[in-house]
């Protein structure tokens, strides 16, 4: 497929132009969306970004060579999209890595084409404050269930569950230090990256008790398991946190499962 690129060079400090003088002092948030035949959901995703009251946002779309109307939707909004490309890739994390390469933001955020930011002021609410952290995360609404996922994480909790990627803002420094997502993990490379990030002392993960996005439970990571990650999870976790923490994580997992089992049998 012919390679198609679109990059807006004007207004490089934000998604188009700041409307007030305070915007220039706020960090740029790069929102990266990977798409492939996403005509059903993409427009609503784009609208949820473009409608943000926070000014310093750039929107990056990395398309894997869609054959449906995805490119038509992108072109409809291209004057408000800071960068887009459509070309064959090696999967979602390869696409995200391409987005990281072109992003200009201090903070990077990855939004699925079938997901939406929770409301028009969520970025303003979060980034009107400053943080001594390299990883900010909150919660997501889990599909139509109304369930809020999943509160504050510890190293032990991260052994059992991953933070939803649509709840996380990564400081650019993390990718400079740790590298990008490992595309060998086709479904949950972000879980591997999160373990590595939590293991770095100066990451100082900070939990925001707020809903960041509405997460579609029909996405790839929800309906597929990353077999390579599940084979290697304990080894990765041990490399990040050491044997002692792995022992406590496994024990916590076992006891938690046992307690749930007892409760269900009451």
* Count of helix runs: 10
CATH class of the largest domain: Alpha Beta
Gyration radius over CA: 19 Å
Global shape? globular
- Along the chain, the helix and strand elements come as EEHEHEHEEHEEHEHHEHHH
Please state roughly what percent of the residues sit in beta strands, choosing from under 5%, 5-15%, 15-25%, 25-35%, 35-45% or over 45%.
15-25%
Low-confidence stretches: 7-21, 259-266
Count of DSSP E strands?
10
Protein described:
- With 266 residues, the chain is an alpha/beta fold.
- The protein has two domains: 1-130, Spore Coat Polysaccharide Biosynthesis Protein SpsA, Chain A, CATH 3.90.550; 135-161 and 181-266, no CATH class.
- Helices cover 37% and strands 20% of the residues.
- It is built from ten helices and ten strands.
- It has helices at 42-50, 70-76, 92-102, 122-127, 155-160, 172-178, 189-199, 220-223, 227-241, 243-264, and strands at 4-7, 29-35, 57-63, 83-86, 107-110, 116-117, 135-142, 147-149, 168-171, 206-215.
- Strands 1, 2, 3, 4, 5, 6, 7, 8, 9 and 10 form a ten-stranded mixed sheet that branches.
- Helix 7 (189-199) packs parallel to helix 9 and helix 9 crosses helix 10.
């Amino acid at each position: 497929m012919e390679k198609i690129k679109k990059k807006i060079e004007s207004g490089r400090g934000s998604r188009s132009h700041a409307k007030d003088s305070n915007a220039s002092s706020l960090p740029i948030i790069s929102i990266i969306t990977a798409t492939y035949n996403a005509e059903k959901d993409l427009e609503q995703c784009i609208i949820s970004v473009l409608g943000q009251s926070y000014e310093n946002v750039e929107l990056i779309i990395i398309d894997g060579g869609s054959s449906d109307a995805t490119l038509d939707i992108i072109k409809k909004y291209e004057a408000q999209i800071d960068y887009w490309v459509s070309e064959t890739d090696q999967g979602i994390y390869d696409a995200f890595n391409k987005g990281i390469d072109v992003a200009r933001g201090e903070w990077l955020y990855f939004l699925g084409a079938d997901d939406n930011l929770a409301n028009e002021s969520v970025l303003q609410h979060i980034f009107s404050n400053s943080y001594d952290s390299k990883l900010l995360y909150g919660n997501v609404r889990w599909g139509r269930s109304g369930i809020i996922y999943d509160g504050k994480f510890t190293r032990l909790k991260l052994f059992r569950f991953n933070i939803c990627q649509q709840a996380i803002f990564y400081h650019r420094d993390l990718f400079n230090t740790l590298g990008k997502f490992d595309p060998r993990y086709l479904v949950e490379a972000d879980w591997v990256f999160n373990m590595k990030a939590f293991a770095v002392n100066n990451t100082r993960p900070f939990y925001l008790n707020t809903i960041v996005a509405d997460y579609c439970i029909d996405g790839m990571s929800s309906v597929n398991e990353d077999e390579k990650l599940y084979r290697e999870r304990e080894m990765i976790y041990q490399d990040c946190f050491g044997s002692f923490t792995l022992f406590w994580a496994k024990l916590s997992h076992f006891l938690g499962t046992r307690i749930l089992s007892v409760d269900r049998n009451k």
